[in-house]
Amino acid sequence: MRTVVVPLTDPSQDPDRIAECALPFARELAARNHVRVVLVSVIELPAEIGPLSGSLGVVFSKGLEKWTTDTREYLDAISRTFDTPDVRTVVLHGEVGPQLLMLLDEVRDPVVVMGSHCRRGPRRALVGSVTFHLIHAARCPFLIVPPEFRRLRDPAPIGMRRVLVPLDGASSGDETLSVLHDVLGDGLRVQLLRVLESSDSAWYYTEIERETLRKKAEATLSGIAQRLREAGNDASTAIVEGKADEEIVRVADDFGAELLAMPTHGRAGLSRLIFGSVAERLANMGHRPLLLIPAAYSSNSNDEAD
């Protein structure tokens, strides 16, 4: 990680200041890793507006100029709350998703820290979320901070040392461990979790087959835990059965996790709308800050390794 990118929205457009929930976490990461911070705000201009001419165009241009100036002043004020000297502010115009993706392509080794509205149910499926559109399209980790963690003026330090890492049988955990090291450093207390869902322990599995699944999961988690310990972290493992998101929340509560960190699998289209993903369901619960490593990031890492 070389850059912490924080998307923000002018309070006139975000009266609940949801985007600002990310700021304490961004400050902590910047101070911990001594990296550059980029504060960015996108003034959304629908493509349908098109070019305006005459007096209407003049009025629109002046209004946009003032909006841009106000937004820049807002970002400048936020930048002064960071202790790190390397803070850049950026105001962009256009559609939020494409503009942020272009910015992420330009900055070096970014991690995005952003507050997210916790949308649930049909509204989530129909309206979608800028956050998760970005996660599925981008090639970098995202730290998603729910509104429940609004601590704009709380001087208490942000804890990101006790980390729960849920893994499934499709992930080796290598990318997640790499991101944990790059973003959070060492000296962490990590619990690795594998949830054997109903499909893993279905009625048609014999007792021997179910035990084989469990032993395979134990071996995988033990190997990852050993690598974490060798890097200077405290690591433990847990294997449970049940519904993934519910068990993750329960284990996180028992462990006292300050952060969840997990890979995503980049589901898209109808499959994602109907079934969703565990990571997305957890984010929409607003249970804890969630560090996500998208499928595109994993693929990119593997390509570079080759």
Structural class: alpha/beta
Spell out the CATH superfamily of the largest domain: HUPs
What oligomeric state is this? single chain
| Distance from first to last alpha carbon | 21 Å
Give unreliable regions as ranges: 121-128, 268-276, 298-306
| String of helices and strands | EHEHEHEHHEEHEHEHEHHEH
Largest sheet: 10 strands, mixed
Based on CA atoms alone, the radius of gyration comes out at: 21 Å
Query: How many beta-strand segments?
Result: 10
CATH class wording of the largest domain: Alpha Beta
Provide a count of the helices.
Answer: 11
Instruction: Output the strand order for the largest sheet.
Output: 3-2-1-4-5-10-9-6-7-8
pLDDT averaged over residues? 80
Helix percentage range:
40-55%
CATH topology of the largest domain: Rossmann fold
Shape: elongated
Q: How many structural domains does the protein architecture include?
A: 2
Write structural notes for this entry.
The protein has 2 domains: 3-115, Rossmann fold, CATH 3.40.50.620; 162-305, Rossmann fold (3-Layer(aba) Sandwich), CATH 3.40.50. It is 44% helix and 21% strand. The chain contains 11 helices and 10 strands. A 10-stranded mixed sheet has the order 3-2-1-4-5-10-9-6-7-8, sandwiched between helices. Helix 3 (96-106) packs across helix 5 (130-137). The two termini are 21 Å apart. Residues 121-128, 268-276 and 298-306 have low confidence and may be disordered.
